[in-house]
Write a sequence for this structure.
């Protein structure tokens, strides 16, 4: 892997450029650490045949206009090796790759999957802006053609890149209109006045109790985070990586019905995220139960161990969950994110928290959603993510050469990003699906979830040496949602 700290000299008019650019933010520098050299890999499936040259022209007209997509990350040796953004000219041929493919290949789906997996084995040269766009003009079972955007995570987080994608897209139903921005509504709360002294005291006691609960939960969560970072590991399990450092990833994805998820959400007075976490817990429990059966019974989990509970009791299984730290929920417009002084800033304004997953076989599938809602409500009554975000920025500001990255003691990573609410066209062609993921993380499994119209994509980034059968896990997501939906009905 290419060293990211190699100094780069910028030449302008025959002499070395002296003007240093804006320094990378502490969180962006975190994605350059040896054990967390993150790349975002987003797959875009087209619903109609495309012209690669048209796609290339569209990318050339849009992406380089963004300052982060047209800047180098240069090592400033005068300031202790600090990375800085330096504007440069973009040669689009270095960034848009259109390989010549055989349209009559035996297995197009396998080819595309292997191609995307191979992108996780390489890095982009620091001598150019850290992004590239691959156009694969081959028909698969889900799309007429596929494009793959690879971006170093230091350029921006998932919210930023989704905002960029929407700014370059149009509604299929109205080609002149931008897509509807998926924003989360905030509750205004009760506006009733406390007309009596008793009512005011009751209101004051409730607020005081919530404040005490918030302080207590935050203190407990921060202590648990510190203990986890120092030594507190999850229980050893078949999904947990046994070694440090990033490795090659295989990306597989499956599709769930958004209507089914909403049906469960409404029936249980939960949120969409509660249901998705519940489905994830159920799927992981099914998968691990088979794995433990295979270990104990000496088979693949399909023999006599199948159908009974093979899971260890009280297994500690946590996910590193990524959280948007901007003051606004959902996706903001691209113009708003790049506007100077905007609170919805472009970049890496994310933190993470340690979310406990329930790994168990439940008689009632709805218990997975109830457990998810309970843990989610508990995390909402805590400032864990904000404290971790503050500590990370503080440490990286005063100790920029720190090599620590994301915690490796947890079992998996988990992320959820809202997508377009209606079908959109990109480069003039309608999209069949959007499937973003990441590589570079030390965890063997990263679960990404993104919504698109009436579908939800579950994208799994797996280390095949740890998880050789990711398709079975995809099937477990399908089966788990069906069981939870049937129990709801």
């Amino acid at each position: 892997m290419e060293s990211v700290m190699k100094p780069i000299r910028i030449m302008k008019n025959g002499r070395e450029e002296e003007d240093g650019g804006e320094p990378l933010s502490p969180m962006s520098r975190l994605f350059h650490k040896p054990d967390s050299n993150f790349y975002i890999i987003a797959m875009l499936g087209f619903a109609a045949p495309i012209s690669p040259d048209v796609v290339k022209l569209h990318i050339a007209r849009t992406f380089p206009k963004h300052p982060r997509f047209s800047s180098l990350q240069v090592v400033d040796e005068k300031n202790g090796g600090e990375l800085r953004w330096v504007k440069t000219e973009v040669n689009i041929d270095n960034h848009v790759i259109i390989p010549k493919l055989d349209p009559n290949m035996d297995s197009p789906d396998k080819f595309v999957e292997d191609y995307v997996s191979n992108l996780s084995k390489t890095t982009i040269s620091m001598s150019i802006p850290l992004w590239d766009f691959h156009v694969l003009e081959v028909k698969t079972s889900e799309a007429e053609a596929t494009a793959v955007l690879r971006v170093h995570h230091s350029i921006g987080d998932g919210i930023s890149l989704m905002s960029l994608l929407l700014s370059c897209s149009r509604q299929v139903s109205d080609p002149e209109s931008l897509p509807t921005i998926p924003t989360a509504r905030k509750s205004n709360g009760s506006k009733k006045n406390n007309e009596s002294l008793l009512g005011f005291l009751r209101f004051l006691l409730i607020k005081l109790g919530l404040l005490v609960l918030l302080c207590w939960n935050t203190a407990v969560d921060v202590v648990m985070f510190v203990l986890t970072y120092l030594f507190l590991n999850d229980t050893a399990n078949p999904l947990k990586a046994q070694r440090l450092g990033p490795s090659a990833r295989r990306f597989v994805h499956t599709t769930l019905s958004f209507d089914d998820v909403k049906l469960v959400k409404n029936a249980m007075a939960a949120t969409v995220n509660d249901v998705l976490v519940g489905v994830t817990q159920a799927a992981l429990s099914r998968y691990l139960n088979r794995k433990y059966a295979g270990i104990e019974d000496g088979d693949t989990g399909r023999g006599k161990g199948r159908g009974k509970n093979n899971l260890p009791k009280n297994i500690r299984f946590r996910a590193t969950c990524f959280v948007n730290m901007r003051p606004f929920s959902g996706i903001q417009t691209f113009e708003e994110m790049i506007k100077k002084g905007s609170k919805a800033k472009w970049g890496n304004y994310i933190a993470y928290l340690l979310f406990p997953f329930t790994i168990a076989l439940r008689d009632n599938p709805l218990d997975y959603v109830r457990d998810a809602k309970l843990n989610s409500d508990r995390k909402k009554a805590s400032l864990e993510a904000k404290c971790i975000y503050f500590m990370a920025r503080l440490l990286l500001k005063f100790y920029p050469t720190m090599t620590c990255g994301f915690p490796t003691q947890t079992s998996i990573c988990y992320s959820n990003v809202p997508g377009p609410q209606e079908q959109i066209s990109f480069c003039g062609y309608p999209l069949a699906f959007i499937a973003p993921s990441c590589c570079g993380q030390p965890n063997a499994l990263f679960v990404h979830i993104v919504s698109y119209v009436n579908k939800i994509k579950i994208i799994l980034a797996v280390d095949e040496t740890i998880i050789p059968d990711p398709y079975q896990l995809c099937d477990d997501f399908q089966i788990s949602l069906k069981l939870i939906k049937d129990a709801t009905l």
Observations:
- The first strand starts at residue 11 and ends at 12.
- The two ends are 52 Å apart (CA to CA).
- The chain has a mean pLDDT of 84.
